[in-house]
Each structure stands twice: as C-alpha cells, then as structure tokens.
Amino acid sequence: MAKIIDGKALAQKVKDELKVKVSEFEKENGRKIALAVILVGENPASKVYVNNKIKSTEYVGMKSLSFHLPESSTQEEVSDLVKTLASDSTVDGILVQLPLPKHLNENKILSLIPAEKDVDGFLAENVGNLMLGMPCTVACTPFGVLKMLKSEGVELSGKNAVVIGRSNIVGKPMAMLLLKENCTVTICHSKTSNLKEICSNADVLVAAIGRPKFVTADMVKDGAVVIDVGINRTENGLVGDVDFDAVKEKASLISPVPGGVGPMTIAMLLENTYLCATRKK
Ligand code: GUN
C-alpha cells in the first residue's frame, strides 16, 4: 500500500514560507508584489480556478489585480489591457486564464506578456530557456510536481521516468524537468503503441492525459512513484487520470485527486510571481 502524498499540506507549507519572503520584499521595496489575473468570459471551471488564485495571492500577502472581461471582448480590448499591465512597473506577473473565448487569438494575446512577467511559463522564451538550462519561469503544474517529488525525498537520478501526455503546459516541460534531474525520460501519448509495456518499466510515472482512470494497476511497476495530474469532471465527481484505488496497492508513493497536484499548481504560481518580482533586479 502506497504512501499518499498530501498535496494540500505541502502547498500550504510552500505558501507559508512564501508569506515570509513576500513580506520582506514589501519592507525592502516599499510596495507589494502584484499579480494581475485576466479572465475573459464565463467558463465555470476557469472562474473557480481564478477565484482560488486570487484568494491564495492575497493569502501570501501579494496584491491581486483581477480583471473580468465580458465574453464579447474584442482582440483589441484584451490586447490593450495586457499591454497596459505589461508596461506598468508595479505589476510583477500577468496571467491570462485559458481557454479564451474562441473568437480570440490566444497566442497573439499571450505573446504581449513580457517574458519576465510570464508567471505561467507559457511563452517561447521561457520554454526555450528551460530546454537550454537557462534561468526561466517553469509552468506551474510540472514545477509543482517536481517540488512534490523533491519534498517526498524521491531519488530521481538514473531512474526511468515516464510522462503520459505531451501538452505544452504539462507533458513537455515535465519531461524536461525530469531530464534535468538525470532521469531517463520517455514521453507517451495517444499514438504510443506499447504504452502498457513502457509504463510498467517506470520508476516514476506522471499521468497527464486528461482521461479518467486511464492508468490501471497492470500498467504500474511494483513500488513505482505515481503522480496524477488529471482533473476530470465526471458524474462521480472529480477523478484523476489514475485508477487510484487499485494503483495505490502497487505503488510506493501516489498523489490523489483531489488534494494532490492541484493545490501545488497554485502554490507554484505564487512562487513564480515571487521569482518574477525578485529576478528583475
Ligand atoms: N487554464 C488551465 N490551467 C491553466 C494554467 O495553469 N494557467 C492559465 N493561464 N490558464 C489555465
């Protein structure tokens, strides 16, 4: 039976440690660190995420600037807001909640965020610098997974790590981070033919596919570390990408859904905001 990672408690610890550093920043600089969050439209899941982000931003003592624009906003209106925040030296981070309504060009809007204020780590400059091993902002979810593995004392060097999912936000940066930790990394995706065989060889398995209970016990090696990035809304509530009840009997360490990676993502957003504020100088 695996040890279950308490992502909520770990996220709380990260936020409480940040609180101290954030207050020191304020004393030294005579202003609060500020994070601007832009939400366009009424996507219910996005509204929940954004509210949680705002609450946590205020909890650590940062200033939260929130902008809720109507669904009908034009490309120009959203762009103008991003440009204004981009040129405001008292704004340390800018987050545009995705997905944007379909009539807006997401990439064009994101590209207006200066790389040094890209708290999501979504921009080409940050992604490229991650590849190059240069200072950069790392996307919050994979950054949170790495923090989780390190906090649990998981030995990564030389281990086989398998990431299921190749998204720009999770799969690809996750693989780069694990590679940097000297893992032998395999990225699997919907077209991978021998998925079960590859997964059963993983010492560390990260599931980020977006399919409920996709990872079953027969795909998991005895004693593996299993991290579930999935957040699937089903009739039975929130379900991860891992068949938790069965897989926990085989793994040595496992993250649950909810209460695993989710809370860590927000904690790392605030960590990224702090890093953006302090990296400037
Ligand atoms: N939508 C879902 N996850 C995220 C995230 O991490 N950042 C942003 N900006 N939008 C999201």
Instruction: Tell me the Rg in angstroms.
Output: 19 Å
Biggest β-sheet description = 6 strands, parallel
Which overall shape is indicated by the principal axes computed on the Cα atoms?
globular
| SSE-based structural type | alpha/beta
* Rounded mean pLDDT score: 97
Helicity level: 40-55%
Which small molecules are bound?
A: guanine
What is the β-strand count? 11
> How many H/I helical runs?
10
Could you outline the blueprint of secondary structure elements for this entry?
Layout: E1 3-4, H1 7-29, E2 34-40, H2 44-59, E3 63-69, H3 75-86, E4 93-96, H4 106-110, H5 124-132, H6 140-151, E5 160-164, H7 171-180, E6 184-188, H8 195-199, E7 204-207, E8 225-228, E9 232-234, E10 237-239, H9 244-247, E11 253-254, H10 261-279
Parallel strand pairs: 1-11, 2-3, 2-4, 5-6, 5-7, 7-8, 8-11
Antiparallel strand pairs: 9-10
Guanine binds next to strand 4.
Verbal overview:
The longest helix has 23 residues, at 7-29. The mean pLDDT is 97. The N and C termini lie far apart (48 Å). The strands form three sheets. Strands 1-11-8-7-5-6 form a six-stranded parallel sheet. The protein has ten helices and eleven strands. It is globular, with a radius of gyration of 19 Å. Helices cover 41% and strands 16% of the residues. It is α/β, with parallel strands linked by helices and 281 residues long. α2 crosses α10 (261-279). Guanine (GUN) is lined by residues 95-98, 120, 140.
